[in-house]
Please model this.
Amino acid sequence: MKIVTWNINGIKARIENLLIWLKESDPDIVCLQEIKSVDEQFPRLEIEALGYNVETHGQKGFNGVAILSKLPFDEVNRGLPGDDSDEQARFIEGVFSTEKGVLRVVSLYLPNGNPLGTEKFPYKLSWMARLEAWAKERLALEEPLVLAGDYNVIPEAADARFPQQWVNDALFQPETRQAFRRLEHLGFTEALRMASDSPEIYTFWDYQAGAWQKNNGIRIDHLMLSPEAADRFSSISVEKHVRAWEKPSDHVPVAVELAFVPA
DNA sequence: ATGGTAGCCACGCTA
Model:
């Protein structure tokens, strides 16, 4: 089963690219971030025509996440618990059935946190604390769970082409990286870390200053696997060629293959 | 120290 995370940076601007990519890549489950659309305006018909079920958690103009799945949804949960005053659409969980039982998949868009010195950075850290609390509860279920998304976290210096450019950025702050490690230490395996040591694997290249042409990238899109999901890990790939398409997102799809068969 | 680009949606905000 192929599960993919992709920050698409605007579903309306990217629908043609998405449809071409779905046909080419043939994923089973797709976690989208930054759909930048309300649910009513999400182009679900074109996607459903390719055989996908569509669940969205949208917002006007900014943020917004979605899950596309060839498997039917048994359950959908919108919003990260822990703060009823948080109105930003950054989290959706889908529950599916496989021949081995339940499979949970989350599409998350973790707050960027810039600029430092504003309320945005503490919001990022508190969101990460809420995610950790939620994940801890879910891990206790001992089920296969995939936390896929744009984490807006550069875990290590090796995950940036020019790490010194990021030292004053929220994506690379010590507190940010610590919170990311705390999540891992609950018992998750970061899927790309299961691949052989591969430096210079990036998932985001800024639109500005020729970042793509210079390969000035960072790795910020991650798939966290619970032990029950990691047990079935087969492979991981970054679909980098998509960044060279016309009108690309600034992020590319990251795909993990897990040995599950739909129920 | 700034500006470089893109999406959304109508002007500035977010990234």
